[in-house]
Amino acid sequence: MHGTVFNIQRFSLHDGPGIRTTVFLKGCNLSCAWCHNPESFSCEPQLEVDTVKCTSCGACEAVCKQGVHQIDKETGEHHFSFDQCVQCGACAAACPAGAIQTIGQSMTAEEVMEVVRKDLPYYGRSGGGITVSGGEATMQFDFLCELLTLCKQENIHTCIETNGVVSKERLTALCELVDLFLLDFKHYDSDQHKYYTGAPNEPVYESLALLAQMNKPVLLRCPIIPGVNDCDAHFETIRQIKRTYPNIIGAEVMPYHDIGAVKWKNIGKSYLMRDVTVPTKEQTAAWRAEIE
Amino acid sequence: MFYNEKQDLDYALAFTRTYQSEPDKALREAKCLALQVPYVLEPIGEEDLIVGYMKHGFVGFSPQYGGSYTYYYWDDRVKDALDKIRDTVDDAYIAQVEQMRAFWKKENTEAKVRERFYEKYHKQIAVGRYYYAVCRVAGMNVDLKLLVTEGLPGLHKRIQTFREQNGDSTFYDALEMSLDVIADACAMYRDSAEQMLCDPSLSERRLYELTQIRNNFAWIKDNAPRTFKEALQLIWIYAVCSDLMNFGRLDETLGSFYANDVKENRINDEEAIRWLSSFYKAIIRVSKVHDSRIIIGGKGRTNPEEADKLALLFIETSKRVMDVVPQLTLRYYTGMNEELMNKTLENIAAGAVYPIIYSDETVIPSVMKSYGISEEEAAAHWVPLGCGEYIMEGCGAATPNTGVTLAQALDVVLHKGYDSFTNTLQAENMKDVSEYETFEDLFSAYSEMMRVPCEEMAYHEQLNYQVAGEESEYLMVSLLTHDCLEKGKGIFSGGCRYLCATSEIFGLITCADSLTAIKHCVYDKKMFTLTELVQMLDANFVGYEKERQALLDAPKYGNDDDEADEIAVRVLNNISDLHAEGGKQTTLYRYHIVSVNNSGSAERGKVTSATPCGRKAGEPLSNGNSPSIGGDKNGLTATLNSMRKFDASKHVGVVHNIRFNKDLLKNQFDKIKMLLEIFFENNGVQTNLSSIGKDDLEQAMIHPEKYQNLIVRIGGFSARFVELSPIVQHELLLRTTVEEC
User: Least enclosed by CB within 10 Å: which of A2, B40, B184, B488?
Assistant: First the structure.
């Protein structure tokens, strides 16, 4: 079967142990305000305009029958609204600056495997393998299972990155196929969790409990966003979770960064975290110490 | 010593008389050396522990001094000196100098090579822009272990032994005389140290050091060295007398001396590092950034444990001295002492660019194949010389005297034989591009065009050795090159085992990526015709931004893309085969290619028109077998995989520049180490590693005064960033830095 993949990143050093290939699947059931991959929210392929590369030549405007693109004649500014976009790809093909691209490509699990296999020599000794991320990796559940099954058949170590908002049945099924779960823990307070991500945190706790019951190794991943969750109560909760579940092999701080900010603009969305300051190295180190 | 113009001219006249008075080439060389060496030796420096430095006269004997060789001659310097003293000397003296000038203009060895080339081809040697040839014997690596094990008296005995076997000859006489030249140099420095010891103002420490220096020379003049310091001094004084610039496997050569000293409590690590640092400073003073290699590690050493201990001190010394030379090079192999790799990467993380790493696992089998030799011989002798070309240490020569810029060659093919940058005819009878109906038509035209230059260059390489052999015996080198004494012949007169030559290939990946882009956009996708493409190149893509984007988007080498990588492999194999075929028409043992590159990739890029890979005119060409600038977009494992696809026996050296983000190596030490080891064990050849931030390079361009010590790796050599030309600085800035993903 086919899945919608929006990136395959080789030589990944931060998504699990060893040297890994991270496969990013499109589609997410949350919409975290600080997300650095907002192009992953939708399950479908979509357009992205790199406003830095754009030379305002108007080639896209000329070919688009849906009126998605408008170039301001005076300022040269490129306005676009993807609501009418039918993803025909004409604008991307017409753009001489390579500023427009379609994000998300339909691939079979076997096609993904062809890329994953290329780095086989590097996985073995380093303890690396594949990490499936997103979006939310479990959104394309059947495709995910097929891909992981192929990996297991070829003895490739598997990780998935999940926000934990996933059904019991699916998570149970995945325990068979996943060697290590990279599970996000975003906010200790359920209301705040919902406010910033769109969902309460109870399902995350349920997933944590289930994985503990199944005795599956979990690496807790904790995005720390200044002004959102860099508070004592949140850190204490993380420490408590670590104490409670023996299957948790560690907790990582994922410090806020604004690299994704431009992507929001490029896909025609507005970024809500504009006022958040990127933490210093010292700040990050202090957070790491907090969750030790 | 410090001489004035008159003394320098007197010396040149004396050298000339000596040269003219002796008809036998072996004795002539020995007599010339006996005159040259004492004249050019410089005094002991104030802080020297390892002593010896020589300047070069206007005329002299050297394997590769100043871009010329054997009996070299610098007419412009003679003329300048004469002009300066013209009013103070008589007419007879001026006439003598003028006679000497006329004599050497014809008699210098390089002129003889050029004349002989002209006799055959009726043109100047390799005048084409996209290929070139020079005269020199670069990168000699001799058996220094033989030198320190036997010492000067042992070598005298060896000569005696073979003289008895083969009968008397002036060759053996001259070899003995050349040993005396070295012994005399030792005597001179011994006496000089002794004199300095009389100075009552000497500090206690310097008194002690000078005593050691004096004793070292006094001993090695007449005896085989006993200690690490004596052995190191003997190597250096030999290097000074012979102009040797590459030192080969010094951990193997000196490992047992060091181990014995440690056992006898004569030395500790810090003391050894102090002497090695002085040795490094002596090398730095010679300032040969494309040479000055020291090799550590690797298979085929007699006592790896002893050698490794010393190898670790070399790595530490490189970190402390932190300069552009010597080019410390580690030979990696599976199962080697883990500490060597750890310390190597610690050096890189600390901002050093040494050691460079080569893989024995890949290189030994490939050298066995390309030289047709046993595993044992390959393991014992292969070393990279100068910029990274392999040579069999102590068994031959492999001078890289010729080169081809493949990106320019392709430009000539696309312009009906004309180089479009200079608009000059470079190849006859080339077709118009409209006649190349298929990609294969184009490729064969390119390949066929290259046949003639490869033959010419091979013939030049043969002449380079042949004429050197007719003029001299290269006594100092022949002394420490296997088979020469045995056969009673000089290294270039049939004495050595492997008389090879090397051709430097520039812009290989630019050429390959251009061919891939042509195949992809013109022949497969038919986006535009080849004629249209040439128009775009001639316009430097102005008005063709969309088409340029398509060319840039075509597959590129360095991304583990089979289509692009296969063409890169094909381009390398093709140029390798053409050289091999050219070599077969000569007396060379082998004629190999090397894709090493120094600053040439940027400098040649400056005078190369736009290329079909999407590169604009004047931009840097690819460096070594590293991807085109900005061409690698798929992560480091993908780049390493592309690099692993070449048949390593088709070349004798490639370089791969990998620059890590500063924090990456520190934070991900184990993963990077593993990654490199896996690369080296799976057909990876070499890496030039560095961990210098792009921000540092940018800052260094703005505030050079603050970055005087920023050392960067350029391909086949290293340099202080602030001393590089803006062209090269720019290229370095554009290279990919591996970031954390």
Answer: A2
